[in-house]
Amino acid sequence: MQYANVTQQLSVCPQISVDELEAIKAAGFKSIICNRPDGEGADQPTFAEIEAKASSLGMPCVYQPVVSGKVTQQDAIKFEANLQKLEGPVFAYCRTGTRSITLWAMTATKTLSYEEILGLSQKAGYDLSGVVRRLKNGGETPSDHADHSHAVVIVGAGAGGVAVASSLKSRCPDLDIAIVEPNEVHYYQPGWTLVGGGVFNANDTVRTVASVIPNNVKWIKAGVAAFAPKENMIVVDGCRTIKYEHLVVCPGIKLDWNKVEGLSETLGENGVTSNYRFDLAPYTWELVKNLKKGKAVFTQPPMPIKCAGAPQKAMYMSCDHWFKEGVLNDINVEFYNTGAVLFGVKEYVPALMEYIKKYHANLNFEHQLVKVDGKAKVASFKKVAEPDAPLVETEFDMLHAVPPQSPPDFIKVSPIVDANGWIDVDQSTLQHKSFPNIFALGDAINAPNAKTAAAARMQAPVVANNLLYERGVQTDKAIYNGYGSCPLTVERGKVILAEFGYGGKILNSMPTWVLDGTKPSRLAWYLKEKLLPPIYWEGMLKGREWLAKPETQHINK
């Protein structure tokens, strides 16, 4: 934890953990303000978790979430009011601390000059020159100034962003590229199912962002605030501006924990867990090992979500452990799915149903998790087909909850999305439908494909090829066929490898005589456990397009 003193009353800091609160209190802080909305990051504790621990330490905690870069004058006035009513010194945090110090700066002009604001922020380690320019410009970010300018700007250093940068560099080594990413940690999220199943260690799924960004690609450590596609510009934290010739947007997806009443308050305790968060996947395995009898409930939210098979993977891996330990007969397993089918591609359902029978799991379709009472250990579901019916309540000893998901907040309010808030791209070329110098890939696009790392692995070369086609470097356009893959870990040592494209078309990467994805396979498990992690780290992220060469077609200009 590295916090920065701004004034005697205020210090700011990047995201904190629950375990750091005692040290914050010991450092003399009396109150806390959270300026980060829940669900921005896969390793982010919810405000409810922070507040519960802070309250136990006697520290008042205020939740004032601000969308990255969307700091308004009203937000600043509210922040100032919070500072005045809270006992100081006050500890404020967001993802990087920039939002918190920006809120302070926007009202500090009442007592400080612009030069004094810049001096205090620089001393704290933050560059607020863009904020000062905005203040001098009547609150609007000037569009005639660029803090950075690059040929290609990539938003996001997750799987899609790093893979696109590497694919571009492999094709055009001298291309000027910058990646905009506020986080310092990169996660191999497909590994979290195996963490929750006791196969992987959580630390094996983590590397620094600095270590995965390709050589000669600039890293701009900031969160995106706004898009100005008509000016070929984005605005980032601190009201700084970045000009581009071509833009690639791959920001991932938001986990909406707060859309389930009571869920945020009980995550990580009372038997409530989720493999969708880095710090909770080990808790899943702890619960599985310790459960000898009782009821285990697994949930799946409304689509779309990333890795639609992950909710049931957690169930299969848990059941396999209980089966091998000889305790499964004493555990009642329930799967509540908001959807109407077990899996969206029918060819894979028969094999999955054999495991449902083996594990004596009860399937409850069209039931959506809407409320969790962690202390009482009760989960409540609404019937999708009967919205006015009473909620269905079930007790649990273990609850694996998967939250509803949506585009990130800064994407939803941007001019590059469709009516539902997803980035509006052509599903074959991944080029934006309205702004031809913008491309997008990954979980936040509106193409009707599965939101998986395997999809991003196929999409990255397509985007790289087509972006360079627009720049006159490539002669052919690449086509994305909707490929996605979901290795369904039905037991330790066997996987049903679902591979499919648009419309549920089966797209096997190997001949069926080698690997029939509709049947459980030890070879597919070996692929999941041993081969896919190095393919991810050393192949996909390095621009080595193993099994991912895009289909191309010649276009007569």
Automatic annotation (TrEMBL):
Cofactor entry: FAD
InterPro entries per UniProt: BLH_phosphatase-like, FAD/NAD-bd_sf, FAD/NAD-binding_dom, Prot-tyrosine_phosphatase-like, Sulphide_quinone_reductase
Pfam families: BLH_phosphatase (PF04273), Pyr_redox_2 (PF07992)
Residue intervals of the Beta-lactamase hydrolase-like protein phosphatase-like domain: 5-108
Membrane-traversing stretches: none
One term of GO molecular function: quinone binding
GO BP terms in the entry: sulfide oxidation, using sulfide:quinone oxidoreductase
Domain FAD/NAD(P)-binding, first and last residues per copy: 151-268
UniProt keyword annotations, A-Z: FAD, Flavoprotein, Oxidoreductase, Quinone, Transit peptide
SUPFAM superfamilies: FAD/NAD(P)-binding domain
Protein name: NAD(FAD)-dependent dehydrogenase
